[in-house]
Amino acid sequence: MLAIESIHVAIGSVQVLRGLSLAVAPNSMTGLIGRNGAGKTTLLRSVMGHLAPTQGRIVFDGQDLARLPKHGRAAAGIGYMPEDRGLVPELTVEENILVPLWATGARNAKERLDFVYGVLPELAAMRERRALLLSGGQQKLVALGRALGVGTRLLLLDEPFEGVAPALSMRLGEVIAGLRGSALSVLIAQSDLNHSRKLVDVEYVIERGANVAAEAHAGAA
């Protein structure tokens, strides 16, 4: 589904990724673990087209993503939940979920919105509230809902449990676990896998922008 092939990425004069490789199999959950500053967010931003590798390739379903414009990721079925949530404060919950669907001209926006509310019914209850009035944990749920809206094939989740109260963290874990067995592939980037070790099939470790190890979880499937 997703293949990262020895990519090198620099931000300004700083080399952040140094030949990193990983693979996300179809219908699987993959963990990427590394300390803050290891390069996890840089990897996800590279997949989304915000940063361009100087070497290596990012291949999604057989297609080199370098050939796609940034907005082409959402149209291809890739949903992204950034660590900082990235919501538009003045927009409502529902509008924030719909933004990437509007941007791609999706004709099934109502269907995708209904799907999100089916997975996260608490968002339906707050659909008219502006994002700036939500707690940090509630904003995480909205960011996940927005990613689910367009992420029909692949979800990229950057520190989904970071800075979230235990009850909401548990809820996020339930939602992500509920995606197992669906048509989605999921890549979860975290500083540790305490919240998701039982979820992932394979975990990769990143340190200073390079691979350290990959471990298969036979019992996760």
From TrEMBL:
Keyword terms of this UniProt record: Amino-acid transport, ATP-binding, Cell membrane, Membrane, Nucleotide-binding, Transport
Residue intervals of the ABC transporter domain: 2-221
GO BP terms, alphabetized: L-amino acid transport
InterPro entries tied to this protein: AAA+_ATPase (IPR003593), ABC_transporter-like_ATP-bd (IPR003439), ABC_transporter-like_CS (IPR017871), BCAA_Transport_ATP-bd_LivF (IPR052156), P-loop_NTPase (IPR027417)
Molecular-function annotations in GO: ATP binding; ATP hydrolysis activity; branched-chain amino acid transmembrane transporter activity
Chain ranges passing through the membrane: none
Domain of life: Bacteria
SUPFAM superfamilies, per database record: P-loop containing nucleoside triphosphate hydrolases
Protein family according to the UniProt entry: Belongs to the ABC transporter superfamily.
Name of the protein this chain belongs to: ATP-binding cassette domain-containing protein
Organism of origin: Variovorax guangxiensis
High-level lineage: Bacteria, Pseudomonadati, Pseudomonadota, Betaproteobacteria, Burkholderiales
